[in-house]
Amino acid sequence: MTYTPQTDEADLLSWSFVQDPYTTYARLREQGPVTRQVVKTLATELNAWVVTSHEHGRALLSDSRLSKDSVALPGVVNRHAVDGSRSATEQPKSMLFSDPPDHTRLRRLLGKAFTMRRVEEMRPWIVRQVESLLDGVRPGEEFDLVDRIALPLPIYVIGNLLGVPEERFADFKSWSSALASVNITAEEKQQALGAAFRYLGELIAQKREEPADDMISALIQAQDEGTRLEPAELMSTVFLVMNAGYETTANMISSGMLALLTHPDQQELLRADLSLLPSAIEEFLRFESPLNLSTIRFSTEAIEVGDVTIPAGEIVFIALLAANRDPEQFAEPDRLRVDRRAGQHLSFGHGIHHCVGAPLARLEGEIVFRALLERFGKWQLAVPVEHLTWRYTAQFRGLERLQVVLK
User: Fold this and answer.
1) Secondary structure (3-state) at 44
2) Would strands 308-310 and 303-305 be described as parallel, antiparallel, or unpaired?
3) Which pLDDT score is estimated for 6?
4) Rounded CA gap, 51 and 44, in Å?
5) How confident is the model over 108-114, as a mean pLDDT?
6) In a domain, 79, yes or no
7) Number of H helices, E strands in the chain
8) 194, part of any domain
9) CA 2 to CA 38: how far, in whole Å?
10) Which of 81, 260, 304, 327 is most buried, taking the most CB atoms under 10 A from its CB?
11) pLDDT tens across 300-330, in order?
12) How high is the pLDDT of residue 187?
């Protein structure tokens, strides 16, 4: 059957939803695996289908009938925009917004530059950065872990990976925050996007003239069956790594810290056995996905989702927060368990668009939590947990601040 929207549609754009999405998602999941909602992507409010079931969400993430083609996407977005006076424009083709065979080619080219060897070789450097950041924390002082640890570390890592001068790291943070925000205008988002692309154009030109041991230089040189990244593809690929590479890791670190602070039994279990760190990182990712929603997709033909038929030409989002707390998939889904068997969460996606940076994010998480646990024997929140706020963004799930005291 084709779904008819119900009268009690959820407000997925409200401040209250951002602060507590799980209550709303549980109610939507009770209605069925997919419902029709208003969702915001960049600055455009869209009538879209939101999938809250883990089983169906995982299947759809690897379903070739859901497309991410950047050429066709603007037309689909325009048809489903709440405000028909605004129109989406075509974006440069990138690995994130393309289908095979273009996606296959682009991912192979990125894979030649973003290798496991390159990631693993960064381990000693990341360890030094973590130690340097923690050296700045005085035992017993109150500080904001988001500002002092969670955000700087992945910005440093991605900046170092790409070969960005440290003095431009703050610009990267500013551009990404603007693009993720719910409550700024389309014009402001376009300004941030324009500034980011202008700078990246300058940096890429510099790397062409003076190659270095960094990922941008490697992407410029990467070849696949005699082909290289076209200039627009290179730009969008670098922007993707820049924009997606630090936000999710920063959210994972701050959310994981909060999870351990509010589950002292699990913190003690982890302290007693640091070999649980890999499973703990996976549980942090499941318990509070760094992403609320998957990136945008559209149906190229009718798709059955449970008893619902999503027609062709519709916008579809997978609610990762909902899927990762689906009781049909996870026992006691609202309980943190650092020894939970790893796997099955959807925080890094699934299928051909599974996050290429997942190994780097996991590495950063393991290094920073090991150092925090070994260096500071006592953690405490400096404010009541109910005073904490989550960033007002539709796409990401991250804390504004996390005031803590470590001793």
Assistant:
1) strand
2) antiparallel
3) 42
4) 19
5) 84
6) yes
7) 17, 10
8) yes
9) 17
10) 260
11) 999 999 999 999 999 999 999 999 999 999 9
12) 77
Task: Give the structural domain span for 116.
Answer: 15-406
Of 274, 250, 198, 270, the closest CA to residue 357 belongs to: 250
Name the packing angle between helices 169-180 and 231-261 (round to 10°): 80
The residues with which 62 forms a beta bridge, in sequence order, are none
| Six-digit token string for 351 | 């299928």
Question: Residue 195: phi, psi to the nearest 5?
Answer: -65, -40
Count of domains for the chain: 1
Closest Cα to residue 317, out of 353, 292, 284, 342? Answer: 292
pTM, two decimals, is 0.90
Burial label, 128 (beta-carbon count in 10 A; 0-12, 13-18, 19+):
exposed
Residue type, 165: P
Cβ neighbours for 370, distance < 8 A, ≥ 6 positions apart: 274, 277
User: Any bridge partners for residue 393, and if so which?
Assistant: 181
Report the amino acid identity of residue 84: G
- The Cα–Cα gap between 360 and 249 comes to 9
Sorted by sequence, the CB contacts under 8 Å of residue 241 that are 6+ apart come out as 114, 158, 161, 162, 215, 357
Confidence band for 241, pLDDT divided at 50, 70 and 90:
confident
The answer on pLDDT for 8 being more than 50 is no
Decide if 8 is inside a domain. Answer: no
State residue 89's pLDDT score: 63
Q: Is residue 10 part of a domain?
A: no
Q: Residue 55: give its domain's CATH number.
A: 1.10.630.10
